[in-house]
Amino acid sequence: MSTKAPVAQGTHKSLSEKGLKAGSVGLIGAVVIGVSCIAPAYTLTAALGPTVSEVGVHLPAVFLVGFIPMLLVALGYRELNNAMPDAGTSFTWATRAFGPWIGWMGGWGLIAATIIVLSNLAAVAVDFFYLMLAQLLGSPGITELSKNLPLNIATTLVFIAAACWISYRGMETTKGVQYVLVGFQLLVLGWFAVSAFVHVANGTAFDATAISPDWFNPFAVDSFSSFAAGVSLSIFIYWGWDVTLTMNEETRNPEKTPGRAATVTVVVIVAIYMTAALGTLSFAGVGETGLGTGNPDNQSSIFAVLSGPVMGPFAILMSLAILSSSAASLQSTFVSPARTLLAMGHYKALPGKFGKVSPTFKSPSYATIAAAIAAAAFYVITRTTSENALWDTITALGMMICFYYGITALACVWFFRPVAFSNARAFFFKFLAPLLGGVILLVMFFKTAYDSMDPEYGSGSSVGGVGMVFILGMGVIVLGVVIMLVMARIRPEFFRGQVLAQGR
C-alpha cells in the first residue's frame, strides 16, 4: 500500500486510499452512528443542569443558538467532503487549505477532544452500570461501588476495552450494535418527555412551569459571560456529528452521503434536545431546591434525579438508556480519533504504524488500540489525581471543540476562495455559512479561554491563581505543539509539504 498521497492541485475524488472497507455504511447507518456519537441521553443528563445554572429558563434559546454554528459548520464540512472525501477530515482539509502546521493542529484538536470524552463516557457508563444493578437487585448500596476507586478504574478499563474490540472489528459490527442502542435511548427519551408533559397537564409535576416565548429569547440572558458559557456547553451537546465525515471512505457514495448524514444528524439531535429540555423545565422548573433543575445537587446527572418522579416504576429504563447511550457513544466515538490517527500516519504526519489497517476487518488497527490506551491512561491519571480534574476536562472540552471546528470551517472558506463568488450556492455554502460558523466558534474559544483563567470557573480548582479549566485546555494545545515539533524533526517530509500539498 502506498503511503504517499497524490499532490494534484485540483479537487479529486479521494486524496489517497487507505485500505478501509468501502461501501459498508449507507445514509441511515451513518446518521445512526452520528446520533450515537453525540449520545443524547448521556449528554442531556450531564449538560442540562450546568446549562440551566448559567442561563436558567433560557435553556431552549441557548440550545438553539448553539445549534446555529453547528449547522453552519456542518454545511462547510459537507462542501469539503464533496471535494476531498478523506478519513482525515479536519487534519487533511486544514492541511490542504492552510498547510501542514495548522493542519496538524486541527487533527490534534479532534484527537485530543475525542480522547478526553472517551474517558468520561466510560466513567458515566460505569456509574450507570452500578446504578442499574442496584435498581435491578433492589439493593441501593450497590450504587456506592462506583465510588470504590480501584473497582471503578477496573470497570472503566473493561468498558474501554470492550468498545475498542467492537470498533476494531470494523464498521459492519459497529453499525449493528448502534442500531439497537440508539433506538432504545431515543425511545426512552421520548417516553420521559411525554410523561413529564402528562404530569404537568395532570397537576402532578414538581414545579409546573408554563412554556413561555421568553424561553426562546437569547437576548434575555442576564450577561454575555453567562450566555457565552451556556453556548459553550450547548456546543458540547451537539459535538460528534462529524463522525459521519470520518467514515467517508467507508460509505456508499462518499462524496454525498457523509455530508447529508452530518446535516440530518444535527437536525434530528436539535429536535430531540428541544423536546427533552422543554419537558424537563416544564416538570421541574429552575428552582434551586428539591427536584428543581437549578439545584446544584441535581446538576451532575439530572435524569438520575428526575426519572423516578417522572417515569415511576419505569425509571430503570432511563438508567438503561443512559448506560446504553454512554456505552454506544464510547464505542462509536472511537471511529473519529482512530481514522484521524490513521490518516496522519498514512500521510507521514505521525509514525507509519498509525497508518496500518487490519487485513481482516479493514479497520484502523494500530490507531484504534492507540486511542483506547490513551483514553484509559487519561482516565486513570485524572481520576487518581482529583475528581475535579475529571470534571474540569469536560468544561475544557468545549474549548477544544471550538478550536478544531473553527479551524476546519475557515479551511473551507480559504480552500474554496477562487470559486466562492461564482454563484449564489457557492457564496452561501462555501463562503458565508462556514465563515460565520467558524468565526462564532473561534470567538467562543477565545472568550471561554479568557473566562476560564478565573479560579472560580468550572469546579473552582486552580494552580497558582489560574483556573484549572484554562490550564487543562491550553495544556492540551501546548502538548500538541510539542508533539508536532518532535514529529517535524523525525517526519520532516510531511511538514515540508512533500506528502500532502496545499491546493485549491
Molecular structure report:
This protein is mainly α. A two-stranded antiparallel sheet has the order 1-2. The longest helix is centred in the N-terminal third of the chain and has 38 residues. The chain starts with 26 loop residues before the first helix and ends in a 9-residue tail after the last helix. The N terminus is likely disordered.
What order do the helices and strands come in, and which of them pair?
Layout: H1 27-38, H2 40-55, H3 59-83, H4 90-98, H5 100-137, H6 149-168, H7 171-202, H8 224-238, H9 243-246, H10 257-284, H11 302-311, H12 315-333, H13 335-346, H14 365-385, H15 387-415, H16 424-451, E1 462-463, E2 466-467, H17 468-490, H18 492-495
Antiparallel strand pairs: 1-2
Helix pairs in contact: 1-7, 1-10, 1-12, 2-8, 2-12, 3-8, 3-10, 3-15, 3-16, 4-5, 4-15, 5-6, 5-12, 5-13, 5-14, 5-15, 5-17, 6-12, 6-14, 7-10, 7-12, 8-15, 8-16, 11-12, 13-14, 15-16, 15-17, 16-17
Offer a concise description of the structure.
Helix content is 68%, strand content 1%. The protein has 504 residues and is mainly alpha-helical.
Extract low-pLDDT stretches: 1-14
**Which outline best applies?**
globular
Largest sheet: 2 strands, antiparallel
Give the averaged pLDDT, no decimals. Answer: 87
